[in-house]
Every structure is written in C-alpha cells, then in structure tokens.
Design brief:
Elements: H1 2-10, E1 15-16, E2 27-31, E3 33-36, E4 42-45, E5 47-52, E6 58-63, E7 68-72, E8 77-81, E9 87-92, E10 99-104, E11 110-114, E12 120-124, E13 133-136, E14 144-148, E15 152-157, E16 162-168, E17 175-180, E18 186-191, E19 196-200, E20 206-210, E21 218-223, E22 229-234, E23 238-243, E24 248-254, E25 263-268, E26 280-285, E27 290-294, E28 299-304, E29 311-316, E30 322-327, E31 332-336, H2 337-358, H3 364-386, H4 389-399, H5 407-415, H6 421-429, H7 448-464, H8 474-485, H9 489-502, H10 516-529, H11 531-540, H12 544-547, H13 549-553, H14 562-573, H15 579-590, H16 592-596, H17 601-607, H18 616-629, H19 663-669, H20 672-678, H21 683-702, H22 714-720, H23 729-739, H24 745-755, E32 761-765, E33 771-775, H25 778-784, H26 789-816
Antiparallel strand pairs: 1-8, 2-31, 3-4, 5-6, 6-7, 7-8, 9-10, 10-11, 11-12, 13-14, 14-15, 15-16, 17-18, 18-19, 19-20, 21-22, 22-23, 23-24, 25-26, 26-27, 27-28, 29-30, 30-31, 32-33
Length: 819
C-alpha cells in the first residue's frame, strides 16, 4: 500500500487556473471543494486553513478531509496532495523551495512535506495538543522554528532539529497567539488572562510584561513589518498600539465608533512606499466582517462582507500582495490588495463627484482642475519623500524588490540621472555610429523597435566615448537595460552611462584586454569564502575569465531569468559599486553543488551561458553576507571610488576609465573598411609587392619603351621565377651597354643597386619574343658599386626603413581591428 501511494504521489496531475484580470471587488479567485458521494449527491468539503509562502508565488490550503491544495500563481497551476490527514496549521519553510510544514490533528506531529511529490522528509513530535501556530525567526545568526498549541510552545533548533526551549502554560492562561517579532529579536505571546509576555530570543529571558487594563478578552496581536509597533485587540471594542522602541502605548482607539464591537483577529496589510510602518490594519470583527482601518486618518477605508456567508478567518501574504478569507461555509476568497485599493479609490472618487453635483452654485470643471492641481502637488511631495535612497533601501530589504510599476522612477532616483536633454540631443544628431551600423547581423532581434533603440543607445555611447565603439561585449551588456527602459531613451542612456562609470570601474583598465584587476578581486573573494570551489575550478582548468567575466559581460542576463535579473539589479543599484562583484561570487557559491558535478572545461563554459535554477533569496542573502564579512584588504571598496552621478549641464562629463594610449582609440578613429582590405595580404607579400612596384616605376621612367618589360603582377613574377638561366652575367651586362639605355654611370649603378635587394630578378625579351629571367651576379654587384658603396647603402637603408615601417603600421592596424 505504501508503494502504491508513493507511486500515485510522484505522478501528481496539475491543472490550470485562471485569475480574474480586473475584478470589481478585488477577488481574483474563489476556491471550493465539492465531491460526489456514491449515491450521486454532491457534498462540499470545507477549507480549514491556508498559508502563503514568502515570495507570494504559492498558496497552500487544507480542507477538513485531509487534502492540501497547492496553487502556483507564477505558473498558474494547482494540484492536490491527498492522504495527508486533517491538519490544524500550515507554514512554508523559508529559503527552501517546495517545503511545507503540516501540523496534523491526530498525533500532533509536524511533517515536512514536499509540495511537488507529497513525500514527508522529516517529522517532529513532542506536542500534547493540536498545534495552532507555526513561525520562523528571521534572525541571521540563528534561525529557529516555533510551534505552539494552546497548552505549550516549543522552540526547535533547525541545525539538528532538537528542542531548544519549551514553554508550558496552566489552566486559565493558555496561549491565544504566539510569534516572533519581524526581526527575530523577540518572542511575543498573548495569553487568555489578557497579558502579553515578551522574551529575548537569544537568551529567552523575560524583558517585558504588558497587562492593558482597558483591554479585556484579548484575542490577537500583530506587528508592523519594521517591527517598531504592535497592535493588540480582543472582544472588547478597544484597539491599542504599542511601541516596541519605547515600551509604551502609542494610542488607544475606540472601535465602537466604527460599529466594531470586538475583534477576533487583526493583521497589518503592507503597502508600497510605507517603509514598513504599515498604516492599514485589517480587523475581523465579532460579526464576521473584515474592516480595513487607516491608522493615520483613523477612518474605515473598506469593508469586506461577502453575501454568501461571513468570514471565519483571514490570512495576509508576507509582502501584502494577496490576502485570503476563509468563509464560514468553507469557501476561500483570494484577494489582490492592489485591486482592493483601486476599488477603494474609485469609490471615494464617486462619492466626491456626487457631493459636487449635489452642492448648488459650484462649477464642476473648476473644482476638478483645482483638485487635479492639488493632487499632483501632493503626489510630487510624497514622491520626493519616498524617493530618498535610504528609505528606498529599507523598502527593498523588507519587500525584496521594487514594484514593476515604479521601477524606472526608482532607478532614476537611485542613479540621480541629470536629464540633460540638450546634451543627449547633440549625441543623437550624430546619427548611427559606423561600428553599430550592421548590429542586426550579430544579434537576432525580432522587434524592430528594440533594434532601433539598441542601435541608438550604442551609437550615443560610442559618440560619447570612442572606447565604447570597439568593445565587443557592450551590446550584450546593455541589451537587458534596453528591454526595461526603452520607453524613455534619455533615462536609458543616462542609466547605462552611470552604470558604466560607477559599477564597471576598472573594467577598461587594460582595454581591449580582460580586466585583470577585477578578475583578481573576484578570485581573492572566492578564495577567502570558498576555497574548495576555487580548487575545483583550478583542477578543471578554468579561470576567472570563465566563472566571473562571462557573467559580468552579460550583466547576469544569460544566467538569470527576467524577473530574477530585475530583482538583482534592484539590489545592485541600491548598494555601493562593490556589490556587483559580490553578486558574482555569491552566484558561484550558491551553485556550488551543480558546479562540482561538472568535470570538463566545456561543461563549465556552457554552464555560465545558460539559465540555471537558483534560490533568489539565498543568492541575494549570500551577496550581502559577502559584502559585510569580506576582509578590508581584499574588499572591492578598497579599490573602487564612491558612486558619482552624471553632471547636470549642457554636456556629459568625459569618461576616463581607460588608458589614453590604448589601441582602441586608434581603432575607433580608423576606417575599418580600409583595414579589412589591407588584411588580405601577409607582411611578406606586402613587402614583395612594394618592391616590385618600385622597380616598375623606375623602369618606366628610365628605360626605353622597347625594354619596359617589367611586370608588377604577382602571377607574372611567379612565372618568371621558374626559369633560371645559368649564364646571365655577361649577357645582361653587354645588353645594357650595347643598347645605350643609360645616360651616365651613376644612373646605371643606382638602378642596379636598387633592385638587387632582396628580389634580384630582372626580365628581358630574347630574340624570339619570349620573357626570360636574368639573375644578377654577385660579382657584378661588387664591381659596379665599389665607388659609391657608402652613399647608396645609406639611401637604401632609409628607403627600406620607411617602407617597412609603413607596411608594419598598416598590417598591425588591420590585424588588431579584427581582434
């Protein structure tokens, strides 16, 4: 039976789900489990609990029949795990993909369940009552697991899965709710005797006990994401906000003003750009209605009351993107928070518009324009406050990424781009750079708009600095930025320019050769934190040019998916320039197991040119650990300059991050077409061709027309070299004497001297009209140049030196142009 069940679980069938695109009430999905009995009657099974994972990609919901439904929002799939048994609580394991903790109702066990196969990998036992609360500490030093029933709470050490601490209660003071604070520093419990106890996590010593006199029958507590404030509520119509910094009550709110007689459950709903100081509190009232209370304005902004039945319980996702409501009839409604807030805003606008129409003697057009001006100024003021770099980093650390809707604005704020429209227009007017005129032949880009934007960006970079016209990796480096920011070409250029100036420091120090300094820094960091992995690379025979440079030259776009790339660059642009090198080392360390299985150079080369599965949270966490724990003597910040934004004005600052004498500057000014033509011949062929040309010119000017038989064509020279007459010395000398070809001895000696080095071949027609080769004899050379030896040798050396220098320069330029 066990084998049959395992076989069934391994072949789990997945089904498609379809989310509502723009629901009016914010409900994107409704869940209900209906089965048909043997007699044909339909019976609905109620859902009992649900839980989101940290990344909001998955949701687990359990019903009373012992089935667990897994919903994957990224893949839009769902599947069912059967045979698990009735459960009382669920929790996803952080930093471990597809692992869910299920608290069973019978034996009070905690099973570690694989959500893909349904297999149980670990079971923890020790409770004497059903487990109602499961949470993990977010402390970087120690990550512990907390499980609690009404009568006891147990802390588990995750390294060896042993009990670390046990808290027992007595009758009348049983646990209502217990959890870690968001930072993991404190353990907070709410008891039935209306007390709140706070312990220090590391030492488990009691640091505070709260007994609110005006709050009776306490039921629930909730923390803001930054952990600085705690809310407490119960069946009495009172809500208390408590400061965790000063250990004092901030305010007490009378909920009866909002027709809320009491609260069964409360939870904060995180919002974008609130810095973790969440201001919206969800309150599940005693009459099973969910209220959304704005704690700043002290107003109810929305009420959720499904028509079918009341709400029994609700769960908010860790980032506030979704929340679900479990109805009393057993159904589950899943809400998108942004859709709910949009509906709230629309309702408010409708109310304002209705009031305007009802008020007599008012101009709707005028009031609308005034409201637009006021709202625009308010939005701009809020944006200036929210776009502070320190505030943005706090948001990033809490949410893990920036919202897609505001990513371009946030990147612009982080890079502090100057928006130099006139300077950018001057670069655009120069047109397409010759180096990127045929860029479509190198890359397959299906979108004509993307190709146009890529050409324009590369051309502007090449016009701004000639170096960027010859760096072959540049198109692949900037292409992902084009895909993200192509709607704003000015922002695209200034963002890429800022990245090249700051995050690509020392990359072009030895251009066009690899950045030796950068690669050495990466290798030193890897050796410091993971020497066995570096030893594996050395054994296989790959260097940092493979495991580091390949990643850097593509800006991580080849090894990460689109969403992973965006999240990584959110963190890179929010940190110092050294973070990008830490990300390279982190990627290698996270992929250690996969890399050690590869034993050949070719396999490792291919590994860094493809997307490989990676836990993005572990990847980013490791990068921050490397950034903070790398010794100062090998830390990149020792060699990097601090971030400097582009200057605002009529022109962009000059890029100086490369040697001035580099061959790249010469190549950028050189016409590449001429270089390619010159590259058809070798140096030896070019030398011979130049000498033959010189002989041909002299013979045309000094020899009579009947003896102008010298040919400069390479093919003729080869044909003439085949024939080598044995006796040519006397005949050739007499021939030139008898014909009277020269006016003086100096002219004769100069011509003979110029053609004997190194190709000493002269062509002459015999009486039959055929061409034959005449080889100059060495004795004749000695006899004819005895008087003018010094003079002619000096002239010969100068001529040859100039000619060879010219040829070498041409050949070198043509050869380097293709490297």
């Amino acid at each position: 039976m066990e084998q049959e069940k395992r076989g069934e679980r391994e072949s789990i069938e997945k089904f498609d789900i379809k989310l509502k695109s723009k629901p009016k009430d914010g409900v994107i999905l409704q869940l209900h489990h209906t089965v048909r009995d043997a007699n044909g009657e339909c019976r609905r099974i109620r859902f009992s609990t649900g839980m989101f994972d940290d990344s909001n990609d998955k949701l687990a919901c359990a019903d009373n029949a012992g089935n667990i439904f897994i919903l994957d929002f990224s893949e839009l799939k769902f599947w069912k795990l059967t045979g698990v048994g009735a459960c009382t609580s669920l929790q996803f394991v952080p930093n471990r993909q597809d692992t869910l903790i299920v608290a069973t109702a019978k034996k009070y066990e905690m099973n570690f369940l694989d959500t893909e196969t349904g297999h149980v990998s670990l079971t923890l036992t020790g409770h004497t009552a059903p487990v109602r609360h499961i949470s993990f500490s977010n402390n970087l030093k120690t990550i512990n697991l907390l499980t609690a029933s009404p009568v006891e709470a147990i802390l588990w050490e995750l390294r060896n899965y042993t009990k670390y601490f046990t808290l027992n209660t007595y009758l009348g003071a049983q646990i209502q709710q217990i959890m870690f604070s968001p930072a993991g520093d404190y353990l907070v419990a709410c008891f039935q005797n209306d007390t709140v106890q706070i312990w220090k996590h590391e030492s488990m010593k009691s640091v505070k006990q709260i007994i609110p006199s005006e709050l009776k029958h306490m039921k629930s507590i909730a923390f803001t994401m930054n952990g600085r404030a705690m809310a407490m509520a119960g069946l009495a119509p009172t809500l208390i906000l408590f400061s965790m910094d000063t250990w004092k009550a901030l305010k007490s709110i009378d909920m009866s003003k909002y027709n809320i007689s009491g609260a069964h459950q409360i939870a904060f709903i995180p919002q974008l750009f609130d810095g973790g100081a969440n201001k919206i509190l969800a309150i599940l009232s005693s009459d099973c209605v969910l209220y959304l209370l704005d704690l700043e304005a002290l107003t109810i902004i929305h009420i959720i009351h499904p028509e079918s039945s009341g709400i029994r319980r609700f769960v908010v996702s860790p980032t506030g993107k979704y929340f679900l409501c479990i109805l009393q009839l057993g159904e589950v409604n899943i809400y998108n928070c942004s859709f709910v807030m949009d509906s709230v805003q629309n309702c408010q606008n409708c109310v304002v518009e209705t009031m305007r129409r009802e008020l007599p003697g008012t101009s709707t057009h005028k009031s609308a324009s005034q409201e637009h001006t006021n709202s625009k100024s308010q939005i701009e003021q809020k944006m200036r406050i929210c776009m502070d770099s320190a505030r943005l980093r706090r948001i990033l650390m809490q949410y893990g990424e920036y919202p897609d809707k505001f990513r371009s604005i946030i990147w612009r704020s982080l890079l502090d781009t100057p928006r130099n429209k006139s300077a950018y227009a001057a670069l655009i007017e120069k047109g397409i750079h010759p180096a990127y005129k045929d860029i479509e032949k190198q890359f397959t880009i299906h979108s004509a708009v993307t190709l146009k934007n890529l050409k324009r960006l590369l051309s502007c970079l090449a016009h701004w600095c000639p170096l960027f016209g010859v760096m072959k990796f540049l198109p692949g480096f900037v292409f992902p930025f084009v895909k993200v920011l192509q709607k704003d070409p000015l922002l695209l250029f200034e963002s890429v320019s800022s990245v090249l100036c700051n995050y690509c420091q020392l990359w072009f120090e030895y251009a066009p050769f690899p950045p030796i300094s950068v690669l050495a820094i990466v290798e030193n960091i890897l050796a410091e934190h993971d020497q066995p992995l570096l030893n594996h690379f050395c054994e296989v025979g790959i260097t940092s040019q493979t495991y580091a440079l390949k990643i850097l030259e593509t800006a991580f776009s080849e090894v990460l998916t689109c969403s992973e790339w965006l999240i990584l660059w959110d963190h890179i642009l929010s940190n110092e320039p050294a973070f990008i090198l830490m990300a390279v080392v982190s990627y290698n360390m996270v992929q250690r197991n996969a890399l050690k299985r590869l034993k050949s150079h070719e396999q490792l080369e291919n590994f860094f040119h493809m997307q490989n599965p990676i836990d993005k949270k572990t990847f980013l966490k490791k990068a921050y650990v490397l950034l903070n724990e790398t010794p100062d003597d090998i830390h990149p910040r020792r060699f990097f300059k601090p971030f400097v934004s582009l200057e605002k004005g009529g022109c962009y600052q000059q890029f100086t991050g490369y040697p001035k004498a580099t061959i790249c500057l010469k190549l950028a000014k050189k016409d590449r077409k001429k270089c390619l033509k010159a590259d058809k011949y070798t140096l030896k062929e070019l030398t011979a061709k130049s000498q033959e040309k010189e002989i041909n010119e002299r013979m045309k000017t000094e020899a009579p027309s009947e003896h102008r038989s010298v040919q400069s064509d390479d093919e003729s020279v080869q044909d003439c070299c085949i024939e080598k007459p044995k006796k040519t010395k006397k005949k050739s000398h007499d021939h030139f004497q008898s014909k009277g070809d020269f006016n003086s001895k100096e002219t004769k000696e100069e011509l003979i001297e110029s053609i004997i080095y190194p190709a000493t071949i002269h062509l002459e027609r015999n009486r039959s009209g055929e061409l034959r080769a005449i080889k100059k004899d060495k004795e004749l050379c000695k006899h004819t140049r005895s008087k003018t030896k010094k003079k002619t040798s000096e002239n010969k050396n100068e001529t040859l030196e100039k000619e060879v220098e010219k040829l070498i320069r041409t050949y070198t330029n043509s050869d380097v142009s293709d490297t």
